[in-house]
Amino acid sequence: MIASAPASPVRILLDYRPALRERTGVGEYVHELARALVESAPAAESLTLFSSSRKDRLSASAVPGALTVDRTVPVRLLNFAWHRLGWPPVERLAGGPFDVVHSTHPLLIPARDAARLVTIYDLDFLDHPERTRAEIRRDYPALAADHARRADHIIVISRHTAEQVRERFGVAADRISICYPGAPAWPRRDREPANGCVLFLGTLSPRKNLGTLLDAYEQLVARRPTAPPLVLAGGFGADADRLLERTRRAPLAGRVETPGYVPVEQRLDLYRRALVFVMPSFAEGFGMPVVEAMTCGVPVIAANRGALPEAVGQAGRLVDPEDARGLSAAIEALVADAAERQRLADAGVAQAGRFTWRAAAQGVREGWAAAIERRSPRRG
Question: Which residues span the domain enclosing 84?
């Protein structure tokens, strides 16, 4: 435990900005982690959520029990100043001081004296910067290794990412904490849908490998004209226009649904509609939708890349994401075999139960303690 003197609370600042808008994987991780931290907080701990944006506001009730600091400095301007200039110290914006400043992305937040942590989800931005946003392309490949080495501690979301950070950034294992995302508190569905779908949920972006999924689904439809519809649910990322155009042409026209971003409160209904869930991504730091699907009792097919095998364990089918024929065959096999779907659903519920937000919060709290112990004095 961090706390040693209840009369002197440990003051934590957590960057909440990734969770401000439509919450995808990173935003959901930050939000649920913040909730779990508040729910499990010892008396001698004070959590402040920090945000700064010109147009998106952080509600004081976003995470009940947490303090909030909401500034209006534009995100791009603040990130440029922080990443490239190392200024201003966050205490100047947030009205510190703090004992811990926790960045929920791979680059440090400038601070005067606080212990500083970064969160690294994956290193795909190093190998494929073309799959990322312009600001990430500008800063992450150039700065992430240096920031990781200077951080007092690093939080990662899978063993796969921890190994990458050790090997590629030269960071010692004792400076890294693995804090898996938790499964949602959803009940398992009591039965399969009568008219189910093949479901993907995630941002429609190049690294999700949806072109190969469409290839596989085309092959499935050619062999099995009565195949269930394909639903590609998620916000439209880079290159989505070309993907969407393809779904409007034969033989996919009328068979592929693209509902766009699905709010958190509507996702359970979406999973309940699925006969099979498919995540064919080239790279995932963990793959939270896989665990969400398994929680509901939806059988899973996932790529054998990145951290997806870690998330799925023995509870799903793993396939080569570059093999459209193999992916198509895996989907068809599950669509045709109710007994195998039941077996994988049972295994998936058990696997999802291994991941809890309370355990994630405890791991992060231990990371804070390690950072406080390691921090070096800095001049503000």
Answer: 10-182+357-374
